[in-house]
């Protein structure tokens, strides 16, 4: 599922329904995971089981760009069923807050926590939107956002919100896509959110990955229908047919945006937060 290139924007309620249906259908069968695995080959991180372009090279790149230390807080924005944040939190000994629009995805993410050996005190999940995370100011040392930013109804507001949550010196790593040869306004968008562009890492193999995956979806259309149901299979096949023709001109990158370090040695909210799940509002973490 690749909302960075798919579908025109739809209202928040409907988006959640769409994503809920996808995550619920995916949980009923391992067919979707098998097709991702077939498309990625050895680059498929089985345990992560992302619904995105997250392969081993991306996990490695995100790890290198985040430059986080044990005990720091990582936010997984648009976390889906949580595999990316859980894998990074365990590998790097981090605390984790994951959030997603979809309550179904969040329930699965919370269920998967124990499989990564992480207690609720180390890894919390909540239903929230990119434009309104409910997280405290300057609370995160790092944020990952993989193939989810395209789901924001207002991308400027979403970037400002993630910038607000980031601690001084912290980094946001996010997948983005653009047309080849276009001049995306990433620097201006980052500046408007109080961030600077630290790295733009090209992901030249990513469009071919989507092409392999979409061809597999089309080739397994009957199986998708019987295992996921007609409606969900139709959504996936529609996405495949809509996005496939656009892939040859697609440029995929990992952007690393940094919040300037205002006081290099001083403590900030991120350093004083004791555990993930600390709530500034009444939403309950899972
Ligand atoms: C393609 S999936 C990727 C999930 C996860 N990042 C991964 O890589 O497996 C996109 C996710 O973004 C979530 N999403 C879309 N729009 C969102 C928004 N405005 N706020 C929060 N989450 C959103 C969806 O519910 C979905 O779980």
Question: What's the topology here?
Answer:
Blueprint: H1 12-28, H2 31-40, H3 56-66, E1 73-77, H4 83-92, E2 95-100, H5 103-112, E3 123-127, E4 140-145, H6 155-165, E5 166-179, H7 186-192, E6 196-202, H8 206-219, H9 221-228, H10 230-243, E7 250-258, H11 269-272
Parallel strand pairs: 1-2, 1-4, 2-3, 4-5
Antiparallel strand pairs: 5-7, 6-7
Helix pairs in contact: 1-5, 2-8, 8-10, 9-10
This protein binds S-adenosylmethionine.
S-adenosylmethionine (SAM) binds at residues 1, 3, 15, 19, 50-52, 54, 78-80, 84, 100-102, 105, 129-130, 146-148, 151-152.
Walk me through the structure:
The protein has 286 residues and is an alpha/beta fold. The protein has one domain: 3-Layer(aba) Sandwich (Rossmann fold), CATH 3.40.50.150. The chain is 41% helix and 18% strand. It contains 11 helices and 7 strands. The protein has helices at 12-28, 31-40, 56-66, 83-92, 103-112, 155-165, 186-192, 206-219, 221-228, 230-243, 269-272, and strands at 73-77, 95-100, 123-127, 140-145, 166-179, 196-202, 250-258. Strands 3-2-1-4-5-7-6 form a 7-stranded mixed sheet. Helix 5 links the parallel strand 2 (95-100) and strand 3. Helix 1 crosses helix 5 (103-112), helix 8 (206-219) crosses helix 10 and helix 9 (221-228) packs antiparallel against helix 10 (230-243). It is globular, with a radius of gyration of 18 Å. It binds S-adenosylmethionine (SAM). Residues 1, 3, 15, 19, 50-52, 54, 78-80, 84, 100-102, 105, 129-130, 146-148, 151-152 line the site of S-adenosylmethionine (SAM).
